[in-house]
Design goal:
Blueprint lengths: L8 H22 L7 H8 L2 H53 L1
Helix pairs in contact: 1-2, 1-3
């Protein structure tokens, strides 16, 4: 598995995730018996500022996921490039032995 360095925005993502989950947990407690369901009731009854904050946290989390995905792709490409380079060096070394005879 490719390795990536820990980035400062990882901690922001954890904070966003915690804020989102705490909001959902609060809605589960408050609107557990609501016929609309906790999520729908929570969204409909939420103050506009709180809903905007929730949506911003969800957007930040999604954006952070994309950044992590890009970092993982770059790390995988580095591994592939290193393996190709290593294979080419081995092949070059083998070619020299064939012509030595």
């Amino acid at each position: 598995m490719p390795k990536i360095e820990i980035q400062s925005f990882f901690y922001d993502l954890i904070h966003c995730k915690d804020k989102i989950l705490s909001t959902f947990d609060k809605w589960d407690e408050v609107y557990d018996e609501d016929e609309r369901g906790p999520l729908v009731a929570g969204i409909q009854e939420c103050k506009e500022a709180d809903l905007i904050n929730l949506l911003l946290n969800i957007q930040r989390l999604a954006s952070g996921y994309e950044q992590i995905h890009e970092l993982m792709n770059a790390a995988e490409q580095e591994q592939v490039d290193a393996l190709i380079e290593e294979t080419e060096k081995e092949d070059d070394g083998d070619d020299d032995d064939e012509w030595a005879d």
